[in-house]
Amino acid sequence: MKGVVLNDASTTVSELIQLVDEFVDERKWQPFHNAKNLSMSIAIEAAELMEHFQWLRQDELEDVKDNTRAMVEIREELADITAYVLSFASAMGIDLSTALADKMKKNAIKYPADKFEGRFK
Question: Count of alpha carbons within 13 Å of 105, Cβ hemisphere only?
């Protein structure tokens, strides 16, 4: 893992799962990386991300991007969530790309663009 340089444009989901799996394997954490623990960890980390926005007004949201300290913390929380999601997918044998594609197809039927353009209800 040392010296690994990854970016969204060239890194596959499989490579990310491998990165997380290797981290878990090196620490022998597999017994703890079960569906219950990982799903709870996803929720906990998501709550930590939400804390950064909890009391902000709508007009303050864009300012967060200019706050270096906040963005470092937000980036780390998002990385924690992602690591747990990837570990969950690995532990449960879920192909994340297929799951997402299937869900987006289902959502497209449930929320047709011509009826939901610019609105959520």
Answer: 6
Q: What is the pLDDT along the chain (121 residues), one digit of tens a residue?
A: 667 789 999 999 999 999 999 999 999 999 999 999 999 999 999 999 999 999 999 999 999 999 999 999 999 999 999 999 999 999 999 999 999 999 999 999 999 999 999 987 7
Report if residue 6 sits inside a domain. Answer: no
User: In total, how many domains does the chain have?
Assistant: 1
pTM: 0.90
Question: Is 81 a domain residue?
Answer: yes
Burial environment of residue 45 by CB neighbours within 10 A (0 to 12, 13 to 18, 19 or more): buried
